[in-house]
Amino acid sequence: MTxxxxxxxxxxxxxxxxxxxxALAEALSLRRRARVLVIDLDPQSNASxxxxxxxxxxGLRLAGRTIxxxxxxxxxxxxxxxxxxxxxxxxSDVEGCDTLxxxxxxxEFRFVERDAIARFTGRGFAIExxxxxxxxxxxxxxxxxQRDYDYIIFDCPPGISLFAECAIALSDYLVLPTVPDxxxxxxxxxxxxxxxxxxxxxKRDENRAFVxxxxxxxxxxxxxxxxGEIDRDFARLKxxxxxxxxxxxxxxxxxDKRSFEAKWRSxxxxxxxxxxxxxxxxxxxxxxQAGADAADAARLPLQ
Length: 303
Prior knowledge:
disordered C terminus; 7-stranded parallel β-sheet; alpha/beta; Rossmann fold; about 300 residues
């Protein structure tokens, strides 16, 4: 059986995408004993450092074992190793998360996309061709790891990027973290419509794009009102991630292993509930993407 592929994605930054990706991965590994791979596509590299720690992340960067090096080698037609060669095994500072692996990102990843666009458009290719090339590389790489895991989680960069669109096109489900305020909801509506169009053929279903309320302040009348508006417009997960200093502090990697409860503290039960709900939602209509077919992934539309 191939992995269930999830993308944690939204156009807006500061909504907790990396925190959600890491917590979800740790809960799936620890509580469900699932084999989980996190692929960090965000040049901010928050998920990478949260899972690997500064020292191991520095080592990966120096050794060229990061997602930007994987794409760069293929775009430059250099000696190529499978995506599996870039996997860092057994990450996380949570005791017992020994089935959680990572493909790390670095700040240099932002230049890979820019340089690819410049290289191909400078030779007369349309932006669709650049997008198709990146999608084909991503789909081909994913095939080398997809049967090794139960879940693959993409932590996507904020905004509309070619790499975020590649991840969406390879996904079975999307999780869209959002703060329940007016501006975030308007941006979410525009992004959600586009994301549905990017899902693989046969999976462009509103029930595959889960909106997750994050940084929620239940004492705020404005946020309560916007949460109601979100419920009207979207398929929202019942789990709500509160505005919580314990959750924010969990982003700090610990060199000493700790329990899930010690790491997430008052947020532990919420993060576990999130993992349980995502598993339950995915089990309703899961049909894996059978190897992440490159031809389907490469048909990403630009509108």
